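Workshop exercise sheet. Pairs work together: one partner reads the sequence aloud, the other fills in the structure field after running the prediction. Swap roles for the next sheet.
Pair: D.N. / O.F.
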Amino acid sequence: EDQQAESVSTAPKLKQRPTPEQIIRQREKQSLQLSRNYLLQQLEVARDSRHRSMLEAALADLDAKLARLA
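Structure field:
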C-alpha cells in the first residue's frame, strides 16, 4: 500500500487541456505576432516616408492588440 501511495504521488501531473477560448486566444496572438514580424521586415526596406508612416501606424495598432491579449 505504501508503494502504491508513493507511485501515485510521484507520478507526473498531466497538464490540463486549454479551453476552446484559450486556443482561440493563442491563435489570435500568434497571428498578430506573425503580422507584426512581417511589418517589421517591411519597415526595414521601406524607403518612401508615406509608406513607412503607414507601416508604423499598423505596427502600433498590432502592438495595442497584442497588449490587450497579454
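Discussion prompt: The CA atoms of residues 22 and 42 lie 30 Å apart. What would you look at next?
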